[in-house]
Amino acid sequence: MTALFGIPIQALFGQLLLGLVNGSFYAVLSLGLAVIFGLLNVINFAHGALYMLGAFVAWMGFQYLGLNYWAMLLLAPATVGLLGIFLERTLIRRLYRLDHLYGLLLTFGFTLLIEGIFRGSYGVSGKPYPTPELLQGGLNLGFMYLPIYRLWVVIASLFACFGTWFIIERTRLGALLRAGTENPKLVESFGINVPLMVTLTYGFGVSLAAFAGVLAAPILQVSPLMGTNLIIVVFAVVVIGGMGSILGSIVTGLGLGVIEGLTKVFWPEASNTVVFIIMVIVLLIRPNGLFGKES
Fold first, then answer.
1. Which residues pair with residue 263 across a beta bridge?
2. pTM score of the predicted model
């Protein structure tokens, strides 16, 4: 078998694929965080819990209602998005004029609440979620075996990420969203319902987390703790890309996932910390992040 730097090519490409899949989850989750912070100025620490909730809603839909993966890929984000709309209307809306710390503490408390409910109901052991029949198996590329479902995760994540970027940065709706958060009174004078736009934006941001949770369910076992460790890495991704930067979250999430995968090949001991090492270096050189705007 051909080797590169003494490492079999098949193992190298396998880790690259794993890094790209992880990077896809980082990109979708950090994108949701960037949308919420960039447009609403709220640090949504509950993003990891909502990611877990999306996976659990998909699992419960399959387990109790017999709904398949494709139905839950739509229903789970919609359900979690409605929960996000309820939270924004009842709690988060009261914090927009206050310091970021209040939003962080509120969403952190919601994280503890939702994780506690699911741990008490289902325990901490993971629940298996079947891979849809259409996406089972893999492709033999000669130099590696490519699981079809992991390829689907990358494609679906890229579609969601760049579709969101296009809507926010290249459409009239996105322009209204940006203008409504910067100067709401001016936009309201044109007859635009800014509070409704803000509510729907938060709902969309958390539905992205749930979408990532459904994608992850067949790969990872569905567990109340599945979002706990991931959210720390995702916050690091957002900081590296630039707080509130849509494109920065996408590019940084994918790139760091690949770097993390390669680190597992060449320096396994550093694979759990490489993202944070990069974050420190970036903050020392460019405090606003790679794609962040200068203050």
1. none
2. 0.92
Q: What is the dihedral of CA 201, 204, 205, 206, to 10 degrees?
A: 130
Q: Distance between CA atoms of 177 and 167, rounded to whole angstroms?
A: 10
Give the separation between CA 123 and CA 116, rounded to whole angstroms. Answer: 10
**Which of 1.10.150, 1.10.10, 1.10.3470, 3.30.200 is the CATH number of 3-285?**
1.10.3470
CB atoms closer than 10 angstroms to residue 107: 23
* C-alpha atoms less than 13 angstroms from C-alpha of 7 in its C-beta half-sphere: 14
CA-based nearest residue to 212, from 15, 7, 41, 48 = 48
Give domain limits for the chain: 3-285
For the segment 119-176, what is each residue's pLDDT rounded down to a tens digit? 998 988 889 999 999 999 988 877 677 889 999 999 999 999 999 999 988 888 888 8
- In single-letter form, the type of residue at position 267 comes to W
With beta carbons less than 8 A apart as the criterion, state whether 83 and 61 touch. no
Distance of alpha carbon 204 from alpha carbon 197, whole angstroms? 10
Provide the 8-state DSSP code for 142. Answer: S
Q: How far apart are CA 117 and CA 9, in angstroms?
A: 45
* Cβ partners under 8 Å of residue 209, min gap 6: 28, 29, 32, 47, 48, 50, 51, 54, 80
- Sign for the pseudo-dihedral over CA of 122, 127, 132, 133: negative
Q: Quote the pLDDT of residue 48.
A: 92
Please state, in angstroms and as integers, the Cα–Cα distance from residue 80 to each residue in 46, 60, 84, following that order. Answer: 12, 13, 6
Q: What is the 3-state secondary structure of 26-58?
A: HHHHHHHHHHHHHHHCCCCCCHHHHHHHHHHHH
